[in-house]
């Protein structure tokens, strides 16, 4: 779910960020500073991060993984071009013709790539059953009644029977036994 993805990603970032912050503070002699007057910045950054992570957990189901990546890439390039042109990082990098052409080519490539996937044949739905380690038949196929066995349980029983026979008789024998 989106909430679980957001929580997991944020937790990993926090856990990984603490040692990195300690190393930066110790290595460069810069003490971390948190002031109450910056609360609105922390609140905005938290909501933005949650929205970003939640969006990335949902977009691939709608657009596909490749199109989601390309949209993300275009967004990064466009926003970094604005940041460079306005000097947000301290140095102004002008948005010239070549940068504009490169950004336009990425936009065009993304559009062409997305249009190319629309003609793909849709995959028919599969009736795949979920194999769970909580299923008693998964641990021991003898725990399941014959009438209740799913295809997966029957497959597991066949594999177990084949292994008990040394792998022969089920097409799993060695070259000498085949």
Automatic annotation (TrEMBL):
Q: Which residues cross the membrane?
A: 12-33, 39-56, 63-82, 97-116
Q: Which InterPro entries match?
A: YdcZ
**Which UniProt key words apply to this protein?**
Membrane, Transmembrane, Transmembrane helix
Protein name as annotated: Uncharacterized protein
């Amino acid at each position: 779910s989106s909430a679980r993805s957001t929580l997991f990603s944020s937790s990993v970032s926090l856990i990984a960020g603490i040692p990195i912050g300690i190393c930066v503070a110790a290595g460069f002699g810069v003490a971390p500073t948190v002031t109450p007057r910056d609360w609105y910045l922390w609140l905005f950054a938290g909501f933005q991060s949650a929205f970003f992570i939640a969006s990335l957990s949902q977009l691939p189901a709608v657009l596909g993984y490749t199109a989601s990546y390309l949209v993300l890439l275009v967004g990064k390039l466009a926003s970094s071009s604005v940041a460079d042109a306005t000097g947000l990082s301290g140095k102004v990098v002008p948005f010239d013709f070549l940068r504009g052409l490169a950004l336009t080519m990425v936009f065009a490539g993304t559009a062409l790539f997305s249009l190319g996937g629309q003609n793909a044949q849709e995959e028919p739905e599969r009736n795949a059953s979920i194999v769970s380690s909580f299923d008693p038949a998964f641990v021991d196929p003898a725990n399941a009644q014959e009438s209740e066995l799913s295809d997966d349980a029957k497959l597991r029983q066949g594999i177990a029977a084949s292994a008990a026979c040394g792998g022969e008789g089920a097409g799993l024998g060695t070259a000498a036994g085949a």
